[in-house]
Specification:
284 residues; alpha/beta; 5-stranded parallel sheet
Length: 284
């Protein structure tokens, strides 16, 4: 049905690497009077988001990497927060598996879907979409402090799932060790500003990291386990930041990420040093 003179022409950014699927959705939308701008990959989509304005984003999740759709949705949310965002996926369990993405996307459409009703769904979302609330931007350190208990809980889940760590029978309290204090120390360093990245390399002492290394030796950890749990900590921290993208102050994200990598590595080094000192003392 062609658009009438009174029809509001909404612009849709349509992102999918499958040409046939893209053409099908494009035709469905144009028949209902939408102006469609197609993009075949993430790079093209990000370029369009940066240079043009859209009312709607429709993007596939896999193009070809699992996180591609999330990258596009996040960019749109950051650049054009009032746009309706629809994520398309071929996985039937996506509603439960992609809870983090649900925080960013207005709707997840599971393939296969009825093409005839696709444009109507888009129009319905435009009509019912509420203006995006502007979230106060936060530095990474502020987010880590606010989400401290969540970080510890998420780290504990990953640690229990790890074969390298879970073989050692420990209570939840003993398994987390000094983790909460290590994250607090990290947040404190982040609060000093980006200059700390260059000024404090190899110079920041962490009593918590030293105590953590001693504890891990007494608990029966191996040096490899120390390294592995440190890697899990970094993964958990970055996962927390991903879940808070709407609040992140992107202007300071890069130096903060550099500080995280340096501080976690510094904490691991100090924990390993204290671990080896206790081991040598025990051997003597």
């Amino acid at each position: 049905m062609p658009p009438t003179e009174r029809t509001v022409l909404h612009r849709v950014l349509l992102v999918d690497d499958d040409e046939a699927v893209r053409a099908m959705m494009n035709a469905s939308l144009e028949r209902k009077g939408f102006e469609v701008v197609p993009a075949a990959n993430v790079a093209e989509a990000l370029g369009l988001i940066a240079t043009e304005t859209f009312d709607v984003l429709v993007t596939d999740l896999h193009m070809p990497d699992p996180g591609d759709g999330f990258t596009v949705v996040t960019a749109m949310r950051h650049s054009q927060p009032n746009a309706v965002t629809l994520l398309v996926s071929g996985y039937p369990d996506v509603q439960s598996a992609m809870s983090a993405i649900l925080l960013e996307a207005d709707e997840i459409i599971v393939k296969p879907f009825e093409v005839g009703k696709f444009a109507d769904l888009v129009r319905e979302k435009i009509l019912t979409r509420r203006p995006a609330a502007r979230l106060e931007k936060e530095r990474v350190g502020v987010i880590l402090r606010r989400c401290l208990s969540t970080i510890v809980a998420a780290w504990l889940v990953r640690a229990k799932q790890s074969k390298e760590l879970s073989w050692l029978p420990l209570s939840d309290h003993d398994r987390t060790g000094h983790l909460a204090k290590l994250v607090e120390d990290l947040a404190h360093r982040l609060s000093k500003g980006s200059a700390s990245v260059t000024m404090e390399i190899d110079t920041s002492d962490s009593p918590s990291a030293t105590a953590h290394g001693e504890l891990r030796y007494l608990q029966g950890y191996t040096p490899a386990m120390l390294v592995h749990e440190s890697r899990i900590l970094q993964v958990t921290i970055f996962g927390t930041l991903q879940s808070n993208l709407g609040r992140l102050d992107f202007s300071l994200l890069l130096p903060d990420v550099m500080t995280i990598a340096d501080e976690v590595d510094s904490q691991l080094t100090q924990a390993m040093d204290s671990y080896m000192k206790v081991m040598r003392k025990s051997a003597a």
